[in-house]
Amino acid sequence: MIERREALLSELITLRDYIRWGASRFNADGLFFGHGTDNAWDEATQLVMHVLHLPWDCDKDLLNARLCLDERRAILLVFERRIHERIPAAYIIGEAQFAGLSFYVDEHVLVPRSPLAELIENEFEPWLSREPQMILDLCTGSGCIGIAAASIFPYACVDLSDISAEAIAVAERNIQRYHLEDRVRAVESDLFVGLKGQRYDLIISNPPYVDAEDLAAMPEEYQNEPSIALGSGFDGLDFTRRLLREVEEHLSDDGLLIVEVGNSWVHLEEVYSGVPFTWLEFERGGHGVFMLRADQVRQHRLELGTG
After folding, report:
1. Domain check: are 157 and 302 in the same one?
2. Which of the four, 142, 157, 172, 182, has the lowest number of CB atoms within 10 Å?
């Protein structure tokens, strides 16, 4: 490997050379793209620009710039890590984009990729009857959903909750990045245990929801994400069942619950056949996100409590 790397250093010279070679290698080695990019070219570009401390949207003429030896060697080392360890690029870079904002991420949180970003950007229209004053981002991970919501509702107070202390540390770092300490807080909590007495106008959750079959079939890149944030039992609903049993006492009278369950929506419909879930649609793709109003939760409390 070292001999091959040294040979490449003399063959690949320009910024364009490294992006092209990286994209070719990524495709040849069968990498999976789904953690911020969806193709080999963008993934290679992201990694190269990170090493060179350059923005993605730099002048295209810069692609012909010659790179110094240290820069070339650093790029190849990053490429090797991406190829051989199957680490998502966002973890290598330590950053991911969500709802037009940039977030610090590491291996203790999922790489942000939820279709909920589109919902946030559209200010939850037409579902909210009024601007929320209290928001909960349950299973927050990096804090991206709650912080993005705070950015569009400047007068709302937002709780970011997660069972993982490591995830809470990441969320706190992102709160500080956007100077939101006065109205956004991170709370270590197993579901609502650490949030007793709190009620929210809007509860948003991207919880663990992958069922056992899908989890076993996932590409290797997902094995580098925290398993606690992905799998949720045989049918993917272990966490969601608990959430639906307990959520009533944490919603305001006209509150809204929005939860992403991905492919496990099929199981959810089977288990709670009498509950009128509203399944949200997204222009940019994505599925398996349901909405319930507080009055629907109250009306169907018996079924939700026994699911």
Report:
1. yes
2. 182
Structure token pair of residue 189: 């909590």
Structural domain contains residue 101: no
How long, in residues, is the chain? 307
How many CA atoms lie less than 13 Å away from 296 in the CB half-sphere? 15
Decide if 204 contacts 291 (C-beta within 8 A). Answer: no
Beta-carbon-side half-sphere exposure of residue 65 (alpha carbons within 13 Å) = 15
Helical segments of 86-158, H only: 89-93, 116-121, 144-152
3-state secondary structure of 254: strand
Considering the domain architecture, whether residues 269 and 142 belong to the same structural domain is answered as yes
Q: Phi and psi for 163 in degrees, rounded to 5?
A: -75, -20
Tell me: the pLDDT tens digits for 27-74? 999 999 988 889 999 999 999 999 999 987 777 888 899 999 999 999
Instruction: Give the single-character DSSP code of 220.
Output: G
- Are both 237 and 171 inside the same structural domain? yes
Q: CA–CA separation, 17 vs 11, rounded Å?
A: 9
Q: Are 210 and 236 in contact (CB under 8 A)?
A: yes
Q: Per residue in 2-39, pLDDT tens?
A: 667 777 888 899 999 999 999 999 999 999 998 888 99
121 and 77 inside one domain: no
Residue whose structure tokens are 């580098």: 224
Q: Where are the alpha helices (DSSP H) in the chain?
A: 2-11, 15-28, 40-52, 69-85, 89-93, 116-121, 144-152, 165-177, 212-217, 238-246, 265-271, 294-299, 301-306
- Measured in whole angstroms, the distance separating CA 284 from the mean position of its chain's CA atoms is 15
Q: What does the alpha-carbon distance between residue 158 and residue 156 come to, in Å, rounded to a whole number? A: 6
- Structure tokens, 21: 């070679």
Residue 84's domain comprises 2-93
- Residue 51, both tokens: 């090493």
